[in-house]
Amino acid sequence: MGISERSLKAKEKFADGNMAVANSITSAVFISVLVFPLSVFVSAIALGKEPFDVAKVPPWGEIWLFAGLYFSPLLVAWYAKKTAMDLYDEIDKATHNNSIKWNHKKLRYSRFTHAQELRRK
Questions:
Q1: How confident is the model at residue 38, as a pLDDT?
Q2: 40-53 b/e (C-beta count within 10 Å ≥ 16 → b)
Q3: Which of 2, 11, 89, 116 is the most buried (most CB within 10 A)?
Q4: Residue 105: per-residue pLDDT
Q5: Membrane-spanning residues where (predicted)?
Q6: 95: phi > 0 → left, psi -120 to 50 → alpha, else beta; which?
Q7: CA distances from 55 to 33, 49, 85 (A)
């Protein structure tokens, strides 16, 4: 049974899971990018190398490898977020009584009644 045959509740749960996975992947990639230079610096000191030798420009092959390893999880996270947003849009179109619109109308009405009460006083 595919996702298109599932109930709206199941689609929403799946979209929530996709969004959580995408956020976890993105956070892990950004944290690893921040920690990587520090770990290289510490390992250079531990191995007795000059720490600034690490700051030299690596060969192009290693640059492309790093870029591929860095951007591939971000692309997976982007795809998961896109899938989740598409499911959220589908759910929004399928539900006629949209709770966000309903709450917005309720809020406008409560502001209106509050303003009327202030005028009476």
A1: 80
A2: eeeebeeeeeeeee
A3: 11
A4: 58
A5: 21-48, 63-80
A6: beta
A7: 15, 12, 41
